[in-house]
Automatic annotation (TrEMBL):
It comes from Sulfuricurvum kujiense (strain ATCC BAA-921 / DSM 16994 / JCM 11577 / YK-1). It is a multi-pass membrane protein. It is found in: Cell inner membrane. This is MotA/TolQ/ExbB proton channel. Keywords: Cell membrane, Flagellar rotation, Membrane, Transmembrane, Transmembrane helix, Transport. The lineage of its organism: Bacteria, Pseudomonadati, Campylobacterota, Epsilonproteobacteria, Campylobacterales. The chain crosses the membrane at residues 29-49, 155-172, 178-200.
Length: 256
């Protein structure tokens, strides 16, 4: 579970609720079923209009990626590549054939299979760069769906509020019902803004960030494949791959 997502959402709800309670309000009253029905489905459906069907489907499939901790472990991937590099340098590329079938990454499996099959480095690079490009495009489209939903939600919150006010003003002969209708109308605005800046928009941006790690891992693996094919010294190759780590990560060499 990605705590930055879960704690962020729960913390935002808690801080709003505490502020409302301190002013004598009741956060439960903000949860208005009619507003939720008007805002949420309409926002998600409207976002579909400007999104490719493949990316709409992918956006929902990627929700677990948003809420789960990233599965990308560059340290473990570098260690794996260096082990393959050592074996290939010692016993030749063909010695990797049995290992390739056991790899957990389809990207690495495809690239090394091409290498074992005797393809030129340029051919491997051209093929795998296309995979990277398509991966970037796919996750960009999926993340953009949620970002569009975030941009749409406040406007639909305003639409919901206007609809509520129209109905409330029809009850001028009953001030109590009219006041309740106006209060209910403004919950749509709250729902729209909350959905935009706490849910949909942040979800899209988080998916884009996690997609960046997925793509970075693929680029790292491609550099590793190139190094293996060229027969680079494993220590030298490791030093190169460690540069893919962010400044916040410590660079540990397995040769030390």
């Amino acid at each position: 579970m990605d705590l930055t997502v879960v704690l962020g959402i729960l913390g935002a709800i808690a801080s709003i609720s505490i502020g409302d309670l301190m002013e004598g309000g009741n956060p439960v009253h903000v949860v208005h079923i009619t507003s939720l029905i008007i805002i949420m489905p309409t926002t998600l459906l409207a976002a579909m209009v400007s999104t490719d069907a493949e990316h709409v489907k992918g956006a929902y499939k990627a929700v677990p990626i948003i809420f789960k901790k990233s599965q990308v472990d560059l340290h473990a991937r570098i260690k794996q590549i260096i082990e393959l590099s050592t074996m290939a340098r010692r016993d030749g590329l063909l010695s990797l054939e049995a290992k390739v079938a056991q790899l957990d990454s389809e990207f690495l499996k495809q690239g090394l299979s091409m290498a074992v099959d005797g393809n030129e480095v340029d051919t491997i690079v051209e093929t795998m760069e296309l995979v990277i490009e398509e991966t970037e495009h796919y996750y960009h489209g999926c993340a953009h769906y949620w970002i569009i939903a975030g941009e749409t939600s406040p406007v639909l919150g305003l639409v919901g509020a206007v609809l509520g006010l129209i109905l409330a003003l029809q009850k001028l002969d009953n001030p109590a019902e009219m006041a309740a209708g106006i209060a209910g109308a403004f919950t749509a605005t709250v729902t729209g803004i909350f959905s935009a800046y706490v849910l949909f928009g942040p979800m899209g941006n988080k998916l884009a960030k996690k997609a960046h790690h997925i793509v970075k891992e693929q680029k790292l693996m491609l550099e590793g494949i190139i190094g293996i094919v060229h027969g680079d010294n494993p220590r030298t190759l490791e030093a190169k791959l460690l540069n893919f780590l962010s400044p916040a990560e410590e660079k540990h060499s397995q040769f030390n």
